[in-house]
Specification:
872 residues; alpha+beta; Beta-Lactamase; 5 domains; 6-stranded antiparallel beta sheet; 5-stranded antiparallel beta sheet; 28 strands; 22% strand
Length: 872
Amino acid sequence: MRKRASGHGVDLPLDRAARPTALLRSAGARILEAKSASAIARIALSAATEICAASSAVWWQRADRKISARHLSGKIALPKPFRFSDDLLDGAGADSALIIPPDHADGAALLAHLHARRVATVPICDGRRRFGLLTVQDGAFDGPRLDLLTALAQQAASALRSLDLIGEARRVAHEQRDTPRQFAAAFSSALSLDDLLGIVCRLAIRSAGVDACLLFLADEEGNLRLQTTGGPSDGGPGDGSDLLAVAELVRRDSAGVVVWHAGGRAHPTIGGLAAGSSFASLLGLGLSIRGEPLGAMLLLSKRKRSFSAQQKREMLLFSAQAAFAVGNLQLFESTQRRLLEVADLNWVSNRISADHSVPSIAATVADATAKALDVPKVAVFVARPDGAYEVMPSGRFGIDSPGEVVIPAEGNIGADAIKSGSPISACDAAAEGRAEDPVVRWMEATSILCAPMTAQPEFRGFLVVGDNKPRRFESHDIGLLSNYASQTALALQSALLYDDVVRHLNELSRLFQVSRSLASSLDLSENLNTVLTSAAELLDAPVCSVMLSDSATGDLVVKAAHGFWEDDELYERIRPGDGLAGRSFESATALTSSDLSRDGRFKFRQRAREQGLHTAIAAPLIARGRTLGVISLYRAATREFTDDDKRLLMSLADSAAVAIENADLYREAQERAEFLSAMMSEINHRIRNTLQAIAGLLRMELDRPQLSAESAIRRGISRIQVVAVVHELMRARELQFVDMKQVARRIVQIMSQAIATRAPIDVHISGARVTLPSQKATSVALVLAEVVDNSLRHGIGDMENGRIAIGLAEGGGEVVLQVQDNGVGLPDDFDVDAHSGFGLKIVRGLVEDELGGKFEIERKDGLLMRFRFPKV
């Protein structure tokens, strides 16, 4: 038989539980000690009244299909009997409590009869027999109290049934005075149902002189299940499951005893069912209490034998005692389980109701649910704004699935449970068509149970448990999970509401930060108005102003205001120390006034009375230890400004002070920037004039009567223009480094314009983006200009399809520049070291002396020149 895992409620200290829980435990102990049905009723009524803090309670006795009031508690009198309607009886037929509100049509007569505004009814039922009803009038009927009320009614029902069982046992003992006393002693020594069933099997085998015993008990659905077997050697027959049909016949037999042996004529149906077993004789005994069948016991013998009438009577007596012991222990274990479940539920409810952390609540519920229902997997899902369901990261037990897990809004067991409003279970998900369910697949569960969580329409979710093997969830499992789901929904919604409050507070704090950041804006008037708007909204003060100190006179002058008339005298200048605002400015502290019309510190008391202003607060604007002004707020209501209002206003005052200070700093920075810009423009202008002067000097060389003078001067002009390109790029970007790709493009453009070729030239610039300091950039630009000039003049000339390729690369602290053309190249006898051309000398001097590098020349489809030099 499946054992229930111990829950939190086992070791729950009394001071951790709510007072109603302690009342339930105390009442349960007294009910178990009660000796009569009347005593049980009185204890239950008193406890129900206290648990629900109710005005009265009524115990309704059931007899002959009628229910009448038998016991009363509280200030209530029932002068005449009341007849319950079928609708009320059907509604109260559930296992849990039912609330009858004032607008309940069928319960209106009961409410009037009890002189109550609303009533909670709970059946007194132990699962097999209904003893009556318990009603509680005008009390606190929240979820936890109703659960405790249900548990109280079940305890009372269990105690009543125990009294019936005791009476039955006494009757049987009176009829069979020769029953061995050791049976009762042995049965009473069992501490658990498993122990008791084992004792019953052993005693039955010894008493009847058989070889084996099979015990079958009915579950909550009424189906027989093999609970235990017993035998002298192997612990029982291996074919017990084949005799289940035999046990069903035995349970339904009215005589209570069935005998069969091989070749016998009695019960031919049983003979056909048992013919395949290894036993030759069978004695079947039904287990029942007052006509209510509990199960069946099969006694099997390997040899063919008959049972005498005396043996049958003795075994009937034995089965009656065994049924009494089994029923009593089942009832005890059921009561204990319910008490533990209620204690667990209350422990979890108390803990999560005081917890405002959503992750902590989810973790507590997942752990407690797994232990209470004895399942290996639990998950808590909540709805997202888009309708899908997301598993809470901390709301997992026994599931290793990192990352976000989202389940669609439709087409899964959770959505179906929420839509139906009731739990849904699957004993074998694959067999029941839920193998592809997203929840089942994610949990990797064979059996699954899901309960909806719905506290308010805006909150949706579900609590789901799973097992790795096929499992049929009992009704009490379903009810327990529903209770956990309800408590979780309420706790999560409360925590989410708490988070909303915290978020609003954080938003308020962020508003202060926004005000602080707005104060760093460039427009002082706009930011002062923003501060005043925030102050008016947060402190409920529609009239407010900011006054700043005039640097020339020292007076306080209004710079921004809300709610004043245009000609209001409050706009007048005031001296520091005059009025509430002046004193706040002078003392550098926040000051308040509870009645402006009577406050001698306020200069314009008459105007305050005319405008209906009653209370005021003023706070200084202080930045870097210097008081810049004061912010004042006025209310028409008599509500005084609190210390929290002072702190809030001081924060806004700090924002205003920062705005003023930053505006001054910005004005100074702007003036300095304008000065630096003008200075840089002047410097660049002078450099440009210098270069132009040099270019003019070179142009003068054109007047010399010598060969190629024009070509030499044009080359000089091109070189100077190259230097100008570098300076221009530096000024345009206001940087210390120059992008050499841009320099290369401009140089090619300048050289192409200086040397007019007949055919167009294809120029391609590729490679990395290389930036160089201004000095090196100038030297590289001159080298590049000299090489491109040489390619255009001597390499390509007027040839068709001329091409120049410029490449840049950088690595290891070194820069590589190469220029290749597809021109005529160099003659075979050309010696770089011996050549003394003017252009090559310039290149050599720039590369080796200025750049600290080296160059090489290759004959490759024209001419390739490669330059290497350090970047720094």
